[in-house]
Each structure stands twice: as C-alpha cells, then as structure tokens.
Amino acid sequence: MSRARADEEEYWHSSKFRAFTFDDEDDELSQLKESKRAVNSLRDIVDDDDDDDLERVSWSGEPVGSISWSIKETASSSTSSLEGRDSSLQKGSSSYAAFPKQVSSYSLSSLFKGELCLSLSALLDTGVKNYTPELRRPKAEYKDYSSDWSPKDTVRRMQRGKVCSLERFRSLQDKLVLLDEAVAGHDGNVITAVLIFLKRTLRREILFRELEVRQVALCHLIHFLKETGEQKLLLDLLRLCFFSLSVQLSQYREHLNIQDVEKRREFLKGCIGLPFSVEDTSHIQDHYTLLERQIIIEANDRHLETAGQSEIFRKYPRKASILNMPLVTTLFYSCFYHYTEAEGTFSSPTNLKKTFKIPDKQYVLTALAARAKLRAWDDVDALLTTKNWLGYTKKKAPIGFHRVVEILQRNNAPVQVLQEYVRLVEDVETRLNLATKYKCHDVVIETYRDLKDRIQLTAYKCKVERGSAEEDKINSILNNTVRN
Amino acid sequence: MAAHLSSGRVNLTALREAGRRELREFLDKCAGSKAIVWDEDLTGPFGLIAQYSLLKEHEVEKMFTLKPGRLPQADVKNIIFFVRPKLELMDIITDNVLREDRGRSPQRDFHILFVPRRSLLCEQWLKEQGVLGSFIHREQYSLDLIPFDGDLLSMESESAFKECYLESDQTSLYHAAKGLMTLQALYGTIPQIFGKGECARHVANMMIRMKREFPGSQNSIFPIFDTLLLLDRNVDLLTPLATQLTYEGLIDEIYGIQNTYVKLPPEKFAPKKQGEGGKDLPTEPKKLQLNSAEELYAEIRDKNFNAVGSVLSKKAKIISAAFEERHHAKTVGEIKQFVSQLPHMQAARSSLANHTSIAELIKDITTSEDFFDNLTVEQEFMSGIDTDKVNNYIEDCIAQKHPLIKILRLVSLQSVCNSGLKQKVLDHYKREILQTYGYEHILTLNNLEKAGLLKPQTSGRNNYPTIRKTLRLWMDDVNEQNPNDISYVYSGYAPLSVRLAQLLARPGWRSIEEVLKMLPGPHFEERQQLPTGLQKKRQHGENRVTLVFFLGGVTYAEIAALRFLSQMEDGGTEYVIATTKLINGTSWLKSLMEKLEPAPF
C-alpha cells in the first residue's frame, strides 16, 4: 500500500506527467486554487488525518489514485482554458444524467435503448460481401462464415462473440432448432440475434405462432421491440399473445410516454376495452375517469385564476396544475378550492367521493387536512358532526380523534379548537399525553378530576400560570374533594 | 491496496491478479501512449481491480469520461474506449470518432474494450454508422465476479433479479456460470454442487455443460472449495424485505453502499481546523471506503447495532490509554518505541472517530419513533402475528403518504409471511396505494405480483408457520451482544437463506425435505469428478470451505450471518459468498419498480 502511494506521489511530482497544466496564464487565481487542491489532495496520501474538504465536488472523497479520481485529474489538465473546461464538465454531467445507471449493462434488457432505428435487414447479415475492402479479414476468419456449423455449434460460437452467418438455416425446422438451442444457452445476446434473423426471414403469422409455445423467446422479442420502438409490430404481437399479466399491461404502460393530456386521455380510453383482469380494468377505468375530470377542472380553474374574480384563488394561488396528480391529491385540491360546491359539479369533493368510492376514512382525513390548512374550523366541526334520526348531534371521527388532533395541531389550530377534540380522545392515557403536550389545561384538569388523582392534579398546578382561571379551577376541585 | 482480499480462507487476491493481468495484456496490445475514455458506470467496479498506478505503468497518460462531442486534446497515440455493450454508448463513441480531426498528426488510433463481453449487436451498430473500421482492437474484458472482500464476490449486476423473474432473460445466469468457471480455473474444480431454485438449476446445468464442451478446462489444481451452494433469491423473498440490524446492514439501508464506498452527510465529520473551503463543506458528502482492510470496521460491521456502542467506547478507552503512554516514556528507547507506534495509533484514532460519527448518525434514526413502529410491525409479521388482516400502521403510513417504497416493503413482507394475502386484504391495499400514489403504479404492483412478492393466497393454505417452525426462523430469546445464533442479525429473525446453508452443512437437507418442497423451485445435488490425485484427504479438524452463490442478490445481514457461522468454534464450515448484486430491500424493490417519469412538482 505504501509503495503504491509513493508511486503516486512520484507520479504527480514528476514533470512528465504533470497533474495540472493550465494554458490560461491569465487566470492566476484559479490556477492557484487548482494547485492548492492538488497539493491538498496529495497531503491526503501522506496524512490520513488531514481534512479532505478541498477536493472537488463531484468526485469528493475518492482516494487519490483511484480511477475516477484520476479521470478528473487528467481530464482537467488537457483542456485548454478554464472556461472551456467548466462548460465541458457541465455538459458532461448533464449528459450522464441521461444515462441509465444500471451496472448490468450486458444483459439483453439494456442492450437496446432509445430511439435507434436498427436497420434490421442488415443486422447479422454478415456474409463476406458486406465487408468493405479495408475491413477484409485474414483468411482464417473466412472459415467462420462458410463452414457448415450445426445449430448447436453456431450458438456456441455466437456466445463466444464470433460472427456467424445464419443464412444457411433455410427450412422452418432448422430455424426453430436454432432458436431452441439459443434459448437453451440462456444468453440473451444470442437469443435476440436469432430472433432478429427469424423476424426477417419468417412470415409474421408463422413467427407468432411458433413464439406462442416458446415463452422465453417471446419475452425477448417483446423486450427487443419495446426497446427499438417498433410499436406496430409490438401491439400486433401483444394482441395475439395475451398470456401473462405483464404483457397485458404493456399496452397500458405506453400512456406514460404520451405528454399531451388530451392524447393521453384518448389512449387510456382505448385501454379500457382491452381484456385485462377484472380488478385491473376497474383501476384503469378509474384512471381514465380521473384524468377526464382533471382536464375539466384544470380548464375551469385556470380560467378562474386568471380572471382574478374568485377570492380563494387570489388568496391562495395554485402551486401547480392538477393534471396527472393522484386521486387523493385531487381530492385534497377539491376540498381546498371547491369545498362548498354542490354534488352535481365535477369538481365537488362529494362527487369525487361518490364516483371513486373513496372510503370514509380517507375522505375525512383529506378533507380535514384541507380545511385545517385554510383554518376553516367551522368546516372541521361540521365534518366531524353526525346527526342521528332523532336530530341529536354527535361527534364522530372514523380516523380516531387523536389523528384529528395531530392534523389540527400541525396546522396551528388555536387551543380552544384543539381542546375540544382532545377531550374526545377515548383512551385516557393518550388524551392526557396529548392534552399535556398541547397545553390544553382544561382537559388535563378535568381528566385528573374524573380519575380522582389528587397527587397529579396538585403537581399540575405548577404547569399553569399563577392567578389564572385554570389555577382557580384546580384549587376549587381540590377543595371540593376535601369537603367530600 | 488489496491485502484484505487475502485475509480469508481463500486467497481472492489471485482472482484480482488474474483480472489485472488480463487488463495489462490488453493495454500492451495498444503500443505507445494512451488515453482511456470511460463509461462512467465502470469506474466503480474497475476501481476494485486496479488503481491508476497500474494503468500509468502501461502508458495511460490521460483519462476522460465518455460524453458526446469532440474528444479532448491529448497527445497520445491510442484512444481506448472502456464501455459496457449498450447501444446508446455506441452512439456517443460514434460521435467522438466522427468528430476526430482527420488532419491532425500524428493520427490517434482507436480501440474498444467491451466489459464484460463483446456484443454482436453493438459491433453491427458501429458498422452501420461506418465507424467500425476505425477501431484497431475490439476486445472483451470478462469482469464477471469482482472481489469485494476476503470472503465476498459480486457481479454488481443490478437488474439480474428483475431480468430473471420479470423478463425471462437469463443472461445474467449465463454470466454467473462463466464467473464460476473462471473461479474453478483458479481455485480448482468444486467437487460438490448443491442448489435450490429454478435459476440455481440453470446455472448448475450450464456449468456442467461448459465443462463438457471445453475438455481443456480440466485443470490440475488442488480444489480449495469443497462445496458450491447455489441459492435463488426467490427461494427466500422474505429476508431482504426486513430491515437489517447489523452495523454494516444499517449503513447500507440508510445511506447505501456502492462498490464498498458510502457517502455520508458531512455535518458530523466537521474538520478540526478551519480550512479555506470550509464554507462549502456541508454540501459535500463525506465518502468513506468500507472493507476489512480497516481493522475496527472488520470487528464491528457484522455486529448487531445494539452491540456496536460498547465496542466503540471500549476502543476509545484503549486508544486514549495508549496516547497517555507518552507521559511514562522516560528513556530514549521508550520514546522511540512510542513514536514508531504513532502512525498506527493515529490511523486507529481516525478510524474510531469516523465510526463513532457514523454510529451517531444511525442512532438518530434507529431511536426515532417511526423506525421503532416500522420495526415492530416487521417483527410481528415475521413471528406470524396478524398477517392475515389489513394492518393499521401500514394504512396510517399510506394516509400520511410515506415513501411508496416503504409501503411496498411492508405489504410485501406481510404477503410473504402469509403465503400470499387474502384477496380482500390485497385489494384493499392495492386500492389505497393506487388512489394515494397514482394509478400508474399498477405496473409496479403487477411486477411485484409476478416476482411473487405481493400476491393473493391461492392455495388457501398458509405454509409460512410450518416453514418458520421447522427452520426456526423466529427466535424469541435473541442475544444481540454475544450471539449464539444467526437470528441476531435481525434481532429475532434468522434469515431463511442462511438457515438453509447452515442445515445443509449439518445435518444435511434430507432432514428438511418437506419444507424444501414448500419453497419454490427444485433442490438438487451434483458431483463433479476429480482426478484421483486431486481428491482431498481432509486433515483432522480442518474446516470445509463452501461457496454460497446468491442468484438475484444478497444483503449485508445475510453475509454477517454466514460470517458468524464461519467463526463458530465447532461450525466445521467456512463460507465464501458470491452474488449477482449486493442489495437491500429498498434497492431491490427499486429495481422492480416501473420507471415512471417524475411528478411535475
């Protein structure tokens, strides 16, 4: 280890491989900074204890001498000006963001990416004639293309990365044997190569028919078509082979690639008729209905907002459009902006609740959060009040009053409002905890009174303000008990 | 740099050395000075094989990251692209080559090194772009199994599980088999192969076939491994879903370990002195390498987190006592001796400071209410409590919109611990998830269903209690400080996968036939014949060496449990671990989720 380090050090000091060569003489400051950083990172090698805060952002902490660290160093020394380097680095980093971060590069799924347009007819058609003169191979390699390899040998050779001509496999039977061999080898690279050959040389109906009984190969072809963006063939294939969940949903998945909401809506509408499982169909139907609603609400509200007539939109301008938001977010939005609307309108919360069969719990939770955020305490009260058939009212919370208190507290509800609900928490211990935490003195005092806990009540006296109404209350209770 | 690789029973330096040799040979083929253009995702894994000094010795003068546009100026004879065989990378290379200034002199030669293998399709692609002829050498570098530590190998193939189970693409298994062939070439033929699961069966078949097809591969090396155990991840879907409670496991759960490096929030690592760059320090994560080369880390990484604090404080006392020694040093000889120990002591001190800071960071999280609630629910499920109804905590988490991945982890755990959920319960969870997080997640839910993680109970029977009891997966009397059983790694739950390995060694799988049948996939045994001269005559008391290969990923807690078994005095077996990828529940589920576009806000 120490030897390697000494090597590194010598390397960075030796003049031949200078770590930093800045042609831009003018920019002395940055030069100074750079070399300081270099020196600092060098010191790291010598003394582990040293701060490494001077290393650069993107690669910070890489040990000196590691590969990624060195890339940074050698790359920066080769650009001619500081500006040039900065912009190139920026460009670099933005383009990396586009790279998928998978490490398992080599497997099939990552082999094909993006909108490449593989000219499939040329692919694997590696007969000798295709080689341009300057690419002419040594004689020995011609053997690879002309020899009469069996399907098995062909697959083995392809697995080892050798180029093989598949043109010799003319009969359907030969081709299928070749495909089965490739599948048996489990090497996605080869399976796909054979599939591309079959796709080019077989009639579509025959290919599909054979693939139906070869599911592994079918999956590879679907994946390949997905990656290369051959939508039409893919959809044809999917229509023919509805055999497993993932394939069924492949078509639904496509909606994610559609940016335009109107088109997306149309596409989802088209998905409803597809033979998905019963539950999936109902979810997809809901997805469609929701987007349809959102489009209407969005158009309407954008208009209201720009017109500046509606007070709620003036007071609380919208942060983002409601399009493509989840259902619960939409419900929150509607409870926030459209709470009082009659059930008949598309944007009213009750209408959403009905249409999507939102459970009571979920509804109360969301409405509560929205109304509390607006500090509409009367709405909160109404939401939690139920009337029985005799006309008596009763407070009820399907989510439990402790959750109600939590939500209200998060929205800075005043103590008067809070304590009303703290009082309704059923579990005594939870009630005491919440009341103490949020300083709902009355509730604490009453609870101790009901528990006939003199000691705690006396102790609580020091928590309330001296001379306050609460203190009087405690005193009167304590005196009362004495008399009893 | 690689001393820690030779610390175990099997000297993995040899594997690293083989990798380095191959790399050197390739570099020497391209005579003259060179620049390497890197596919960025390769630098991490390559860093475990070679440092820059090796490249430098072979005239690598510059290194760049691969990006579109003109290649940077560099007076070198060769430009070498180190890339994975991905078509979008081929596009970038094409762009680089086409923009190369033809007028410059001397001309630069281009080469490509594909990692881990050449691809017909990529070369065809380059040919269609008319640049294939520009490359003088096109080679492959089979970086299949990368040594991570003295007893740990990984292919770092992130999507292996997804490809095998969702896409029926078993290319990663083919690479696993190739990696095992390389291992056998270096460490001798492994006489016994056991396996459980569909993928395990495939890999074993491929190994046997490869051996038959290359008779030359029959080597005359004395076998170091006695047994190979191939385990499918889908045999044990439960373990990765639970929160790991070992020190290393928690670091991975919370911060994520990548290629043995972890990035940590810098606040706890504040510099002792005020540097110039001190101002922007808090934005830069602290990066540390974690492996057994660090003595203290090797000691604490596999402990239950609750046992780490006491070790750290004990170490702190020892180190300050050692520093105090200097006051007692009177003679020149004594002072000299003290000074000679100083570098070691300083290293120990900074290592201790780092791990104390990490432990503090983790403690902040493990003592939080939410961590506790989450763990309580996990443990209830694993011990078989209330797995058949909708769980309140999960519902609350959905209502509060906790990260979706956390929800999926818990619901999947419940499903696995109940051999699938009742249709009504499953539908309820599904609806809540879709309504709260968006309908498009139906794709992810379907992926999980296909992988067997989240599914309806079809057989109408819950097998999990039988499996749990027979394999003793739940231990009530767990000892976190001085463990006597592997269940300490999850504070009560003994990882199923490791239990299978343990029972295989003693008393053998025959004792658990019934349970093995309940778990998915076949179980099997194969023998590879050895020439008589190489058959092992075991010394009395000598431990057997078993290579456990996890197909589809392994967690740090499972590794810790296997290391615990290796160290048991009467264990009789030492384990080396190989895997397609080091995972935790979060990274694993992430790999199974549909990639959705980010929400607009």
UniProtKB/TrEMBL annotation, chain A:
Organism whose genome encodes this protein: Pandion haliaetus (Osprey)
GO CC, one annotated term: early endosome
Organism classification: Eukaryota, Metazoa, Chordata, Craniata, Vertebrata
Top-level lineage group: Eukaryota
UniProt gene name: Vipas39
Subcellular location: Cytoplasmic vesicle; Early endosome; Late endosome
Transmembrane helix found in the keyword field: no
Gene Ontology terms describing biological process: intracellular protein transport; vacuolar transport
Name of the featured protein: Spermatogenesis-defective protein 39 homolog
Signal sequence bounds: none
Gene3D superfamilies: Vps16, C-terminal region
Keywords, in A-Z order: Cytoplasmic vesicle, Endosome
Transmembrane segments: none
From TrEMBL, chain B:
Location within or outside the cell: Cytoplasmic vesicle, Autophagosome; Cytoplasmic vesicle, Clathrin-coated vesicle; Early endosome; Late endosome membrane
UniProt KW Protein biosynthesis keyword: no
Chief location category: cytoplasm
Similarity field: Belongs to the STXBP/unc-18/SEC1 family.
Gene symbol of the encoding locus: Vps33a
CC per GO annotation: autophagosome; clathrin-coated vesicle; early endosome; late endosome membrane; lysosomal membrane
Gene3D superfamilies from the UniProt entry: 1.25.40.850, 3.40.50.1910, 3.40.50.2060, Syntaxin Binding Protein 1, Chain A, domain 2
Protein name: Vacuolar protein sorting-associated protein 33A
UniProt-listed GO biological process terms: protein transport; vesicle-mediated transport
Membrane topology: Peripheral membrane protein
Keyword set, alphabetical order: Cytoplasmic vesicle, Endosome, Lysosome, Membrane, Protein transport, Transport
Family matches, as InterPro entries: Sec-1-like_dom1, Sec-1-like_dom3a, Sec1-like, Sec1-like_dom2, Sec1-like_sf, VPS33_dom3b
SUPFAM superfamilies from the UniProt entry: Sec1/munc18-like (SM) proteins
Biological function: Plays a role in vesicle-mediated protein trafficking to lysosomal compartments including the endocytic membrane transport and autophagic pathways. Believed to act as a core component of the putative HOPS and CORVET endosomal tethering complexes which are proposed to be involved in the Rab5-to-Rab7 endosome conversion probably implicating MON1A/B, and via binding SNAREs and SNARE complexes to mediate tethering and docking events during SNARE-mediated membrane fusion.
